[in-house]
Queue: 3 jobs
Job 1
Amino acid sequence: MTPPRQVERLRAFGRERARQIFGATPLPDTREERQRMASDWLTLLVGRALARVADARSLTEQAERREIEDPQRDGIYDDLAQALRAEIVAWETAQNILGGWEVVHGLIDDPDSCAVTDSATCQSRPI
């Protein structure tokens, strides 16, 4: 399957969402606490992404099973299209998480970094 082309747009959305969340959240004082906070955040989001993957897999299996049971049945392509849409949503969710992680990862070592801002001076600086 060829992934959707809007990778950078999806990751930018994830970065912006992380900036909104962590820009309004007081960060812990120590690196260890920030690392634990980042791990908790990532664990929650990866759990959601895995649930989307499981949903997509379930829909794919259901579509395949229905196709085997009755290859002439109306709606086979609708089932497969629904499964494909679920796979795309799971993939897009993963891209959002990767973008957000760029911001969060930068905050672990440098809580005063530009990671939570989106100004022109900070964009040229790596996170």
Job 2
Amino acid sequence: MNANVAVNPSYLVYAPGDGNVYMSNFGDDLTDHPQAVAGSKLAALGEGLKAAGATCPEGCTVPQWHDLLDREEGGLRGVVWQAVGDILGIRISRADVEQGRLPAARLTGPYT
């Protein structure tokens, strides 16, 4: 498992269980994605991230927004991880995330 700290920007990879996998930069608006149709899991995650302040608000430049998050919210990564945890009901300690000690599962398939 990689802590994903040295990678800039960090990526959010979301596999909602519908056979699709979506990848975006931290801070990108998932509701802009073509598959984020009303009622979809992707749209719900995108709206939740927006509500949590994990996407750049209108009228704000990305550097201004990052500075604000760094001062008041513990940075973009912290805001994204907290929002994803809250939205999806995932409870993993922040220390485990920051140190790259996330639980992992390997699913067997027809090609393994």
Job 3
Amino acid sequence: MKDSLLSTEEKRRWLARVFRDKDGEYSQADKFKALVEDTKLATLQQEEEEFKRRQETGAGTQDPILALLQAIPPAELNLDNHTPS
């Protein structure tokens, strides 16, 4: 059975058509919604590509807590410079 769901790329192409519509078929609100949805899909697509790249390089087996700590900017980790509240 063929998968009836659109791929992320197909969704982005359709949303781009909505956004570029000049015939008045879509309202400005529809165009804005399409732009927002496309931004979400672009972020999702980027995350998927990053995940695949990490899996290929072996970085995907990293501890999730360690990954969160690495995402914190270095200034936030420097506890010596923080004054008590």
